[in-house]
Amino acid sequence: MTGTMKTQATQRLTMAQALVKHLAAQQVELADGSLQPYCAGVFAIFGHGNVAGIGEALWAERASLPTWRAHNEQAMAHAAIGYSKALFRQRMMAVTTSIGPGATNLLTAAALAHVNRLPLLMLPGDVFASRAPDPVLQQLEDFAGGDVSVNDAFRPLTRYFDRITRAEQILSALPQAITVMADPATCGPVCLALPQDVQTHAFACPTAFLHPAPIRFRRAAADARDLADAAMLLRGAKRPLIVAGGGVLYSQAWAALDAFARKCGVPVVETQAGKSSLAWNHPLNLGAVGVTGSPAANRMAREADVVLAIGTRLQDFTTGSQSLFAEARIISLNVQVLDARKRQNAALVADAKTGLAQLSHAMADWRADVTWTESASQLAADWVARVGVLTGADPDPEHKGVLPYEAQVIGAVRDSIANSDRHDVVVCAAGTLPAELHKLWRAGAPGNYHMEYGYSCMGYEIAGALGVKMARPRQEVIVMVGDGSYLMMNSEIATSVMLGHKLIIVVLDNRGFGCIERLQQASGSPHFNNMLGDCVPASGALAAIDFAMHARSLGADGVHVANIGELKTAMQHARAASKTQVIVIDTTHTRTTQDGGWWWEVPIPEVSSRAEVDTARAAYVTARKDQRL
After folding, report:
1. Which fold has domain 10-216?
2. pLDDT, averaged in runs of 10, over the chain (629 residues)
3. Domain 224-384 is of which CATH architecture?
4. DSSP symbols for 96-161
5. Whether domain 391-586 has CATH 3.20.20.60
């Protein structure tokens, strides 16, 4: 054998330095062919478990990979998730924490990202791999396993988990983690647990690792046999319907959906994740579907004989706990095979944009029955008009002098846009507001409706909106949040001020958990542990919470308005402002929009001492008869 073996170029780096340099260099090729950094930056709260290792590495690369300080670990992860969701999963952020409570504060955000299929790179510190100083400060000691740390709690909450116990393991672990996040079928949170000593260990890092190839998102095509089956099923439909889920947005398939719906005359309904796939005034957009759906969408969903579900998990709020589409055959176009094959649906495993193009070609000149299409267009137009009424001035004398409810607040916030060419992004997550916004918010462009309703996590709203604003700095980002969620997590108001990312936060104060109070009443139970006025013991006193003053204490501008008229004025001032604005308005929890909606399964006790519970149980048993088994 002749010749000499070529020596691989290396650079002596710590594990943390190699990780950060790889992240800083990793690019992604976007749909327009441009290259952008895949990781937009790192949110960090330092502690003894990460300040000396990854903290030093982040400082060295701060010009190419920005680091931002947050005020709460869960909140900074929500911000990272909101950023990626706002950019349709094309880019992501990383978060790093110390060991112990800093790490476990990420668990809720990990679950949120997992449920919503959103990328998040978590880099929590971990205990010493050497075990020399065990037990180190904040270390969990498991009597049954010497290698267990609190970071093992991430295993069921992530798509990929690894603990880096030797520096060179980062060479395979980090690319694997990025591959999982960048694959549309496996996209979700990943966790690389970083023992604090290993972060500082040096090794001969191959130079090639510091120059990774750009990421290109795959667009999987449908199998020819599955495509033929789906086309045949759809051709036989007399009353076809499309359910647009979040996959339409993540695939950026909104134009393909519009073209397919118009060509084939098939009406469209939208899930919480899929809302804004079509403009609110599209002639075939029937609006929100399911438990929080419009009457137009739910009527046609109930009558449909074939449903083309695109990029949706078909969760219970979409299907009315499996009662809404009980008579329909479902074709599920989804990039994830397990989502596509749920409940023996006819699976079309493909990227939404690619699959729609294939299906459109396979359908040739087929169109739905003209009377079905015309009926859908009329229902859509009627609902658009009805939304204008519901969100306008209240004409009902019965409610004169009563506090406003969510629909009126939504209308005032929405109509405060002075320029019709401007597009706000509304952000929400939990409580009554998701139902009202799903029905009533008018989204004019893809991504302008940002609802976290896979995990429906109270506290996501403000933190997630910070990430949205970082992704879409030219748009006004409006947070609509109840007093309950605001109290759970508001720290990133201070972060938004510190980083110069203005938010408009509208707090609807109904003095408690009004949404669950209504559910409690509907279930036959008495007032109990939900509204603040019902929770004061004999020795206590009802707290008077001044949300506007609290917001001002965090550096924002805060104002409490007395009515809808003052809200409209405050919104104009907020739009003209340059820093985060918080507007508080008192609302009632006893009133909601009665139009639309659908049954949702909440089990009622079989035995109770309350007659009201027995009545609710009887209605529950009757409703379950419509479920699809």
Report:
1. Rossmann fold (3.40.50)
2. 70 98 97 94 98 98 98 98 98 98 98 98 97 94 94 98 98 98 98 98 98 96 97 97 98 98 98 97 97 97 97 96 92 97 93 98 96 98 96 70 92 80 88 97 96 97 98 97 97 98 98 93 94 90 94 98 96 97 97 95 96 96 89
3. 3-Layer(aba) Sandwich (3.40)
4. EE-STHHHHTTHHHHHHHHHHT--EEEEEEE--SS-TTPSPTT----TT-TT--GGGGGGGG-SEE
5. no
